[in-house]
């Protein structure tokens, strides 16, 4: 299925599991082949965790076949990969097998170093999973004891065997491990001269192993018992036990135990010494040949795997060239099309920009004309106010004063006329004063233009347009260009409302806020996403005009929640 789907990860995983199957069934060459193929795929995927796991499996096969140097190389590479992944259980297993491997290479001090490193990994795991770790720790102590046993340091060996066997629930939970440690501990006692205590422990160990049908364990126990009888000068029982070991070793095809049994038989069975010696050399020679053949086989598997991978790599490269060529061709055609579209779009934008420039020029002319017209009106109003104040008021004042100087018998009528003249004088002053005030508080041209613009809006959504302008905005202090841009921003915003908003109401407000002027355009329409629509021409124009005005622009909108535009200048 992984091949059909071209799923490299699951293909690598499948090959790994097939290797496990052959490993369980002792088809080690097949297992090694599938592990190697799995490793190649994981290497392509750069999956360091699984590469490390596969290397550990391959190292185990190499160890079982006596390829100790090759095993060491695989384990060192596995440790490098797995240490970075904090895979403490896997790193523990690597250190453990590496230490066992070094025992076979007779590098005992180095082996102890790696067993202690394995213990450190167990310490890291102990915090989270102490139930399973304690038996691994027991096994590690036993292995360290074995190293000291090889070094003939029986005191140290006994110390670690005692640590190993003292783990709680060991006998009940792991009887095979308990029997092995007990047997090793008994052997150290035998070497230290405690023969009877050793015999008792060896018989207990043998009984457990025999009940569990652990053939390799039975051979080990019988071997130690034979050495006990040798120490007691009981040659017949020693030969009996060693002969049993020899027969069982041949039956289960355990070559190392066969050789060990033959070696002991040549030392104690003087009657058949020549036969056992010849057998020892024959089997030893055949084992060495088989070992060399095995090493060559694994090397050949690696080579054949590399060849297959190289052929696959060539095919992948060919396919890659075809894909890359097709992609480049498609990219070239796509680029030509995009360039054509951009050229067309640029022409359209150029026309729009030219039209906008013309519109700006027309609008500036209109504003200038309005400004000239307003200036003329302003001057005329000032002139009228001055004439009223300086001419008419003075004339009325003079008439009132002269009238007051005249003597008349009709005093009541005279006073009434004087009062009427005072009222007329006051009214003329008031009108002159208001003419000046009007010019200071309102700029009728821009107000009318904005008001007319908003009130003239109509669309298919029947949007209600409202305009509110603060009377305290002093338009006379605002430059013509800024007023023009403000007008254009309102115009662009209203155009967007008409086109897209589907709003029921739109409000345009111009406010005086401290020393700033604020324009707010709000609608209750469908809204939009400013992040997605930020490149629209309308929004871009508004942003450019706000920048020209040196104004702060804020656009807030949410889908189905209306839109608000605020310009402060």
Properties at a glance:
569 residues, alpha+beta, 77% helix
What this model shows, in words?
The chain has 569 residues and is an alpha+beta fold. Helices cover 77% and strands 6% of the residues. The protein has helices spanning 2-5, 8-24, 28-45, 48-64, 68-83, 88-104, 108-126, 130-150, 154-165, 170-173, 175-191, 195-211, 215-231, 235-251, 255-268, 273-405, 411-441, 444-455, 480-501, 537-548, and strands spanning 464-469, 505-513, 516-523, 552-557, 563-568. Strands 1-2-3-5-4 form a five-stranded mixed beta sheet, covered by helices on one side. Strand 1 (464-469), helix 19 and strand 2 (505-513) form a beta-alpha-beta unit. The longest helix is centred in the middle third of the chain and has 133 residues, at 273-405. The model is unreliable at 437-444 (pLDDT under 50).
Topology diagram in text:
Elements: H1 2-5, H2 8-24, H3 28-45, H4 48-64, H5 68-83, H6 88-104, H7 108-126, H8 130-150, H9 154-165, H10 170-173, H11 175-191, H12 195-211, H13 215-231, H14 235-251, H15 255-268, H16 273-405, H17 411-441, H18 444-455, E1 464-469, H19 480-501, E2 505-513, E3 516-523, H20 537-548, E4 552-557, E5 563-568
Parallel strand pairs: 1-2
Antiparallel strand pairs: 2-3, 3-5, 4-5
Helix pairs in contact: 2-3, 3-4, 3-16, 4-5, 4-6, 5-6, 6-7, 7-8, 8-9, 8-11, 9-11, 11-12, 11-13, 12-13, 13-14, 14-15, 15-16, 16-17, 18-19, 19-20
């Amino acid at each position: 299925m992984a091949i059909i789907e071209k799923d490299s990860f699951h293909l690598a995983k499948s090959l790994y599991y097939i290797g496990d199957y052959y490993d369980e069934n002792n088809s080690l060459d097949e297992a090694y082949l599938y592990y190697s193929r799995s490793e190649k795929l994981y290497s392509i995927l750069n999956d360091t965790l699984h590469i490390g796991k596969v290397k550990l499996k391959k190292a185990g096969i190499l160890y079982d076949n006596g390829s100790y140097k090759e095993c060491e190389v695989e384990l060192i590479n596995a440790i490098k990969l797995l240490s970075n992944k904090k895979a403490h259980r896997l790193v523990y297993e690597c250190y453990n097998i590496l230490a066992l491997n070094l025992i076979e290479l007779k590098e005992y001090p180095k082996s102890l170093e790696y067993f202690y490193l394995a213990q450190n990994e167990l310490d890291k795991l102990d915090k989270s999973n102490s139930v399973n770790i304690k038996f691994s720790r027991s096994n590690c102590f036993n292995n360290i004891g074995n190293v000291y046993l090889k070094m003939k340091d029986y005191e140290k060996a006994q110390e670690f065997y005692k640590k190993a066997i003292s783990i709680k629930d060991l006998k009940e939970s792991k009887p095979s491990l308990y029997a092995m440690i007990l047997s090793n501990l008994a052997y150290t006692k035998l070497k230290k001269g405690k023969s009877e205590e050793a015999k008792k422990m060896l018989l207990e160990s043998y009984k457990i192993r025999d009940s569990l049908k652990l053939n390799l364990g039975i051979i080990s126990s019988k071997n130690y018992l034979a050495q006990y009888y040798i120490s007691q000068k009981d040659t017949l029982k020693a030969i009996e036990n060693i002969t049993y070991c020899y027969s069982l070793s041949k039956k289960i095809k355990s070559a190392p135990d066969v050789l060990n049994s033959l070696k002991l038989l040549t030392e104690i069975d003087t009657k058949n010494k020549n036969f056992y010696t010849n057998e020892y050399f024959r089997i030893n020679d055949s084992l060495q040949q088989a070992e060399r053949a095995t090493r060559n086989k694994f090397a050949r598997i690696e080579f054949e795997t590399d060849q297959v991978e190289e052929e696959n790599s060539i095919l992948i490269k060919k396919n890659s060239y075809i894909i890359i060529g097709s992609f480049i061709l498609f990219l070239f055609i796509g680029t030509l099309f995009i360039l054509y579209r951009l050229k067309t779009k640029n022409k359209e934008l150029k026309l729009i920009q030219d039209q906008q420039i013309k519109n700006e020029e027309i609008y500036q002319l209109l504003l200038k004309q309005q400004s000239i017209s307003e200036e003329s009106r302003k001057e005329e109003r000032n002139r009228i106010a001055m004439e009223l104040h300086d001419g008419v008021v003075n004339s009325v004042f003079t008439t009132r004063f002269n009238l007051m100087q005249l003597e008349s018998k009709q005093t009541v009528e005279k006073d009434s006329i004087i009062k009427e003249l005072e009222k007329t004088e006051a009214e003329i002053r008031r009108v002159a004063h208001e003419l000046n005030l009007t010019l200071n508080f309102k700029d009728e041209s821009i107000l009318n233009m904005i008001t007319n613009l908003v009130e003239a809006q109509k669309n298919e959504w029947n949007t209600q347009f409202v305009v509110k302008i603060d009377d305290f905005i002093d338009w006379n202090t605002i430059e013509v260009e800024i007023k023009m841009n403000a007008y254009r921003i309102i115009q662009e915003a209203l155009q967007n409302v008409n086109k897209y908003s589907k709003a029921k109401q739109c409000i345009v407000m111009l406010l005086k806020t401290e020393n700033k002027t604020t324009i707010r355009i709000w609608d209750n329409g469908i809204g939009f996403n400013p992040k997605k629509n930020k490149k629209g021409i309308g929004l871009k124009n508004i942003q450019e005009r706000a920048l020209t005005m040196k104004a702060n622009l804020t656009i807030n909108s949410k889908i189905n929640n209306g839109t608000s535009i605020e310009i402060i200048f």
